[in-house]
Amino acid sequence: MKSFYLIICALLLSISAQSQTKDSLEVETYTIDVNIPIISNALNALKTVQEASGNNDKDWITDHWNTKVFNPYKNHTKEYPLQIKFDDSTYASPIFGEKVVTSRYGWRNRRPHKGIDIDLVTGDEVMSMFDGVVRYVNYHSGHGKTVVVRHFNGLETVYAHLSQQAVKVNDTVRKGQVIGLGGTTGNARGSHLHLEVLYQGVQIHPEYLFDFSNEENKIRNDEIWVTRRWTTAYRHNSKRKSKVELCTTEEEAIASRANEKKIYTVRRGDTLSRISNKYNVSIAKLCKDNAIRKTSTLRIGQKLIVNQ
Ligand SMILES: [Zn+2]
After folding, report:
1. How much distance in Å is there from the Cα of 167 to the middle of ligand 1?
2. 175: CA distance to ligand 1 center in Å?
3. Buried/exposed 243-259: b ≥16 CB within 10 Å, e otherwise
4. What is the rounded CA–CA span in Å between residue 300 and residue 298?
5. How far does the centroid of ligand 1 lie from the alpha carbon of residue 196, in Å?
6. What is the mean pLDDT of the chain?
7. What is the Cα–Cα distance from 240 to 115, expressed in whole angstroms?
8. How far apart are the CA of 162 and the centre of ligand 1, in A?
């Protein structure tokens, strides 16, 4: 009988405890009158801050998020010019010390070189240029051991030829955080960092966005518009520094597009005189602009500048 009362008491206690928990979970709701000046001003200020930061417009970390493939944007159509925004005025150098560029973004040995090579010694630490989330960690043909970090403005930075990868996919990394060690894995002659900068799967000329020439590590502007010229390797030479004429507005980007070099891809049966007639460019000019001789044999697929 005693135990019966004890059970009843315990039951009653637990019921009262449950109802207390339930009461404490009930939240009172208030409605805010947005017409009160102090509140409407605060809301407007918040909106301005959100608009100014711009990069928060879109959640880039979930956009085409795929940790299995190098380029998840393969079938995605890009709208040019591309607009890139930065919250910061500097990037973190991907290596310690002086950045010695041994090969630039551009045409190299009849192939596109879609990144920039920065000299290092195997085992040197390699850092993420910005805050972000690691999207891809793999052994990638040509690139060797590779780490790709997606940043909050949609840019991705690729660190290739690493000897060691120090992060996992979906890890959050800070600007300047070590993501691996440099090396020679993949198709690399000597130890160096092959660095690529991608936006929606297209490689942008890294020097168009960032100044690598000194230790200031400057981002060229907080808003940069990218035309096809800066995402096309054959418009640049990996041995030469391209002259950067930055577009900081959409209008500038559209205007600069008009001045872009016209490129013709050689087809079967083409001759210099046929191309010269078609584009109304003299053979002498074709030879000069493309550093070829009148007697040079044209290869199918070869790109020629056909500026008048
Ligand atoms: Zn490279």
Report:
1. 21
2. 22
3. eeeebeeeeebeebeee
4. 7
5. 8
6. 86
7. 14
8. 12
Choosing among 3.20.20.60, 3.40.50.1100, 2.70.70.10, 2.60.40.10, the CATH entry for 82-258 is 2.70.70.10
The superfamily (CATH) of domain 263-305 is LysM domain (3.10.350.10)
Which tens digit of pLDDT belongs to each residue from 148-157?
999 999 999 9
- Domains of the chain, residue spans: 82-258, 263-305
Distance 155 CA to ligand 1 centre (A): 18
Q: What's the CA-to-centroid distance between 33 and ligand 1, angstroms? A: 58
Q: pTM, whole model, 2 decimals?
A: 0.71
Check pLDDT > 50 for residue 21: no
Ligand 1 center from residue 117 Cα (angstroms): 5
For residue 148, what are the contacts with CB-CB under 8 A and spacing of at least 6?
70, 134, 135, 136, 137, 156, 157, 158, 159, 198
Centre of ligand 1 from the C-alpha of residue 52, in Å: 35
Q: Which of 23-27, 191-195, 277-281 has the lowest mean pLDDT?
A: 23-27
Distance 96 CA to ligand 1 centre (A): 18
